[in-house]
Amino acid sequence: MGARGPLRLVDTTTNYQAPTPPKPAATIPKPPAWLSTPAKREWRRVAPGLHKLGLLTDLDRQALAQYCAAVARIEEAEKALKDGQTYTTQGGRQFLRPEYRILQDAIKEVRAHCVLFGLAPSSRMRMTLPEPKETDELEALLD
Fold first, then answer.
1. Are 69 and 39 in contact (CB under 8 A)?
2. pTM of the predicted model, to two decimals?
3. What residues contact 57, with CB distance under 8 A and at least 6 apart?
4. Within 13 Å of residue 135, how many CA atoms lie on the same side as its CB?
5. What is the mean pLDDT of residues 27-56?
6. pLDDT: is 66 or 58 the higher one?
7. Which of 15, 25, 43, 46 has its CB 3.0 to 4.6 Å from that of 31, i.e. a possible disulfide?
8. Helical packing angle, 61-80 and 37-52, nearest 10°
9. How far apart are CA 5 and CA 80, in angstroms?
């Protein structure tokens, strides 16, 4: 007897299959107008590859826009940090530049989005990508 009553036997002979989630049509959405020029450049770089893998739909537009905006922030922060990561006040004290914190936050954001879209090798290894549909010649004739 279990701690909460008699143990129940579970039937493991049934072949349970999880319901398949709805699949919106894979398209390349247009980038939002509010994206900066570097962010739009990143959008044009990654969107075709994501579309080719079937990972980009209209529903993913906002997530991809956030990824591209974070990449643009990294680029801008890196440019600002070329002169160093600290600045000295008139009193002689040194502080981290604000761009350093912006850079660190943007890097965390990009890493999170890379996992979502499979933009890192380790996240691609965990993904199950849809198989390309191979059309049979006989089926094509019947259609």
1. yes
2. 0.70
3. 24, 25, 26, 27, 29
4. 7
5. 91
6. 66
7. 43
8. 140
9. 65
pLDDT of residue 132: 56
Inter-residue contact 74 to 102 (CB < 8 Å): no
Any long-range contacts for 55-60 (C-beta under 8 Å, 24+ apart)?
55/26, 55/117, 55/118, 55/129, 56/26, 56/27, 56/28, 56/29, 56/117, 57/24, 57/25, 57/26, 57/27, 57/29, 58/24, 58/25, 58/27, 58/29, 59/24, 60/29, 60/117
The encoded tokens of residue 107 equal 């890097």
Average pLDDT, the chain: 83
For tokens 């529903």, what's the residue? Answer: 59
Give the residue, 110 or 25, on which the prediction is more confident. Answer: 110
Residue 1 scores a pLDDT above 60: no
Domain ranges of the chain: 37-127
